[in-house]
Amino acid sequence: MTIRHGCFFSYAHGQHAYMSKFKNDLVDALKCYLEPHFDNEEELFVDSEQLGGGDDLDQKIARALCESVCMIVIYTPKYEAHGYTRREFAAMQLIEAERRQWYSLPSHLIIPVIMTRHPVGLPPQITAGMYVDFSRYTLASGDLKANPDFLPDIEKIVHRIAEHYHCLKRCTPPEHDCSRFVLPDIPPEWRAIPPPHFPR
Predict the structure, then answer these.
(1) Would residue 121 be called left, alpha or beta, if left means φ above 0 and alpha means ψ between -120 and 50 degrees?
(2) Of 2, 46, 67, 140, which residue is 20 to 30 A from 161 by alpha carbon distance?
């Protein structure tokens, strides 16, 4: 197995400035602070930058997940509502289970970044390990990589990715082949859907 990406970026796409600017700002900040930690690997895999129109999407996503050290989840209520993003999440859980057999994981491979909280609270899939809360971010927050309100959390994310990177470099079985990894089926919704309420 060859490590090609420091982190796979998993997020629900948005059409308007708030979601797209947050994603772009976070990508820019993480690339900036991750660069000194890697040899020749790309800092991040972001589908909007690295997928072409003719790609076999499932195969390319599966391979990119397998060749990534960790996964960043930009959590919004929209994220858990989309089957495909839940599928990426489930895929990285499978990868984490496999890597547990190679070395003692210092932490989970999935790093949730809270952009927008769900009105009834965060799901346990997100709160099961470390997560960072960026829900105070607005379009007026400016450059994330230079904003002192967010830098401690960015540093925490970078440290976690770098720690896993060095573990993975030392412990990956040389015969491991990421071309064999396939995405799981779309998992069920994270929250039970309440029954409809009919007027009495």
Answers:
(1) left
(2) 140
